[in-house]
Design the sequence.
């Protein structure tokens, strides 16, 4: 579900004035609301975290598959040697 169509909840946050000023400038530059800018920033953080988790999972399963392939090759070689 995209942030545009997702249910929304209003929240109150306290930020340093410099961050609010920056958010206002960026929102004006992008012609979006401050809320939309902050939602985008948080969405990008979520996307990065999900990408990192996916990469970590891929590395885990790739290592596991590699170990299985190595064990399988050893077992096949031993079986062929024993059959000879």
Sequence:
């Amino acid at each position: 579900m995209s942030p545009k169509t997702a249910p929304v909840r209003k929240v109150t946050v306290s930020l340093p004035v410099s961050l609010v000023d920056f958010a206002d400038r960026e929102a004006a530059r992008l012609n979006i609301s401050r809320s939309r800018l902050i939602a985008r920033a948080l969405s990008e953080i979520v996307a990065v975290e999900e990408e990192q988790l996916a990469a970590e999972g891929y590395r885990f399963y790739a290592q596991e598959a590699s170990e299985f392939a190595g064990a399988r090759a050893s077992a096949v070689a031993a079986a062929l040697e024993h059959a000879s």
